[in-house]
């Protein structure tokens, strides 16, 4: 956990954010500025700054597995996933997250 990381604060429940999905390792919540009708962020519960800092292969599996579960729960048959890694690539929040974007029924 990181004191001033916005996603760690969300994970601590500081904003009362509703989780679309969660288990012991990951949580998923709606993006505050959605770029698609369904836009969910899947994050590890542990503070990991970016994909470059992720070494735990089990956690890699948990994250991708959660993406599939979230897509199913949100009624997405087709969806895009995105991981921005590094400022120059557009990463704004330095707590690893996978964007899951799509439209219900598509
Ligand atoms: P990235 O540019 O890949 O780091 O994406 C960061 C994402 O986090 C953006 O799509 C933001 O809209 C989203 N975001 C920032 N603050 C919050 C928040 N408090 N709750 C939900 N999503 C957020
Ligand atoms: Zn964090």
Please give a quick description of this structure.
The chain is an alpha+beta fold and 106 residues long. The protein is 22% helix and 22% strand.
What keywords describe this structure?
106 residues; alpha+beta; HIT family, subunit A; 22% helix; binds zinc ion
Set down the secondary structure blueprint.
Layout: H1 6-11, E1 21-22, E2 26-30, E3 38-44, H2 57-73, E4 79-82, E5 98-102
Bound molecules: adenosine monophosphate and zinc ion.
Specify the CATH architecture: 2-Layer Sandwich
CATH homology superfamily name: HIT-like
Strand order of the largest sheet: 1-2-3-5-4
DSSP helical segment count = 2
Strand content: 15-25%
Give the low-pLDDT segments. Answer: none
Mean pLDDT: 96
The number of domains? 1
Helix content: 10-25%
Q: How can the largest sheet be summarized? A: 5 strands, antiparallel
Q: N-to-C SSE series? A: HEEEHEE
Cα-based radius of gyration, to the nearest Å: 13 Å
Bound molecules: adenosine monophosphate, zinc ion
Number of strands: 5
Q: Can you tell me the overall shape?
A: globular
Could you explain how this protein is built, in words?
This protein has a five-stranded antiparallel beta sheet with strand order 1-2-3-5-4, with helices on one face. The protein is 22% helix and 22% strand. The protein has two helices and five strands, in the order αβββαββ. It is α+β, with helices and mostly antiparallel strands. The protein has helices at residues 6-11, 57-73; strands at 21-22, 26-30, 38-44, 79-82, 98-102. The protein has a single domain, classed as 2-Layer Sandwich (HIT family, subunit A).
């Amino acid at each position: 956990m990181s004191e001033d990381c916005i996603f760690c604060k969300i994970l601590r429940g500081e904003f009362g954010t509703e989780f679309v999905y969660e288990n012991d390792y990951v949580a998923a919540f709606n993006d505050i500025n959605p770029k698609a009708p369904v836009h969910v962020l899947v994050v590890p519960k542990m503070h990991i700054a970016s994909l470059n800092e992720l070494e735990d292969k089990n956690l890699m599996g948990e994250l991708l597995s959660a993406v599939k579960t979230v897509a199913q729960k949100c009624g997405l048959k087709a969806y895009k996933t995105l991981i921005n890694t590094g400022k120059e690539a557009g990463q704004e929040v330095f707590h690893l997250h996978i964007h899951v974007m799509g439209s219900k029924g598509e």
